[in-house]
């Protein structure tokens, strides 16, 4: 079955050190001791970040009113984390990582298609979080009047990378304990931040923000969903695979949704109030989220604010690197799980060093590339959710690792669905970094023929004219297409697999 554990005294020693040696194999029955409420801690800790306040500026940037933005925020955050909760049900049913359980839908070898996409998305976004943590350190040091030069950035890079890599290598049990502590630290610091900046809210300015169109609301909704729940959906079952067999699916969905959504909803709403109160503040947040939020604080709280911001970003990065290591194993890399996490941690560190110290124009193209991967990831999510909805029994453990088993080597229906939904989805999204990542301007090819927008090749920078282009309908359509096609076309296949 491709297990990656060690034997004898080596295994005993790593267990005493708290290092998880379990890789992509099925979790033993005796180790499935987690309860649904335990899911609250990792999801809450990874999302109770002051960076969430910045999303208020991003949402209002779509040209909608505070009330419209409030609706978009609540609906987008809650639904996206609820979808993560549905994926988490598979973890309880199969007690294996998300990308292993996805083999039931794509086939043991066919799963490598979404597996590669998932690995790139996970390691990419977590590198982005690490970069934000390092840059935030330099920004706050500058505000304090301390040195914000190369030495500070080197120190911040070493500390951030060490925290992320060490926790990811240690594994599930250490991460769960760490997240429960970080939940309190970052939660308290965030509450203090809100209390200290309440006087920045101008209620008359908030009420005066003009309303936008339906298309603008849809665009903001897609941005919120992809920025929160859908950004985690490819790793959701990794944290539920230690759940008791008798855990209720509804409880897993509920705790997953509550843990992931409660902090972002409150933080984004507060961010909406701040951004709507001051146009200058909103524009500054878009350019430098952490640093701008720090300018609202008294000097005495800048250091606690910095620590809370960094720990929250590190918390999210740890979840991603841990899961990207599991995905690496699912792709056939034969190393122990801690080594896989370490490999991805090294890649994260190298990426952070390159961006912070050497790259002159990297963040825009980097984000453009990751957003592009969001379309096939949404298609995969729709397929996986439909597959979970169709199943009535637990997974066949052995068949998940056997190309000759009931899940076969490749399920061509799922592969074709993912490819087709991605092609359609890319045709209805546009590149938000048209100048910095001109090589990615090939997207949006269905907008013109469908009369949804016009591409303007302006010498100052190309852009799309119209109400729908920046709504990024392709993400939602890829999700819906993946679900509907799978639910209809694979019903008989799932029944045969479970027979």
TrEMBL record:
For molecular function, the Gene Ontology terms on record are: transmembrane transporter activity
Question: What does the UniProt keyword field contain?
Answer: Membrane, Transmembrane, Transmembrane helix, Transport
Q: Is Transmembrane one of the keywords? A: yes
Write down the species.
Nocardioides eburneiflavus
| Family from the record | Belongs to the purine-cytosine permease (2.A.39) family.
State the compartments where it is located.
Membrane
Give a Gene Ontology cellular component term annotated to this protein: plasma membrane
Protein name per its UniProtKB record: Allantoin permease
Topology of this chain in the membrane? Multi-pass membrane protein
- What lineage is on file? Bacteria, Bacillati, Actinomycetota, Actinomycetes, Propionibacteriales
Spell out where the chain crosses the membrane.
39-60, 66-90, 116-141, 153-174, 181-198, 218-237, 258-277, 297-319, 339-357, 369-390, 410-429, 470-489
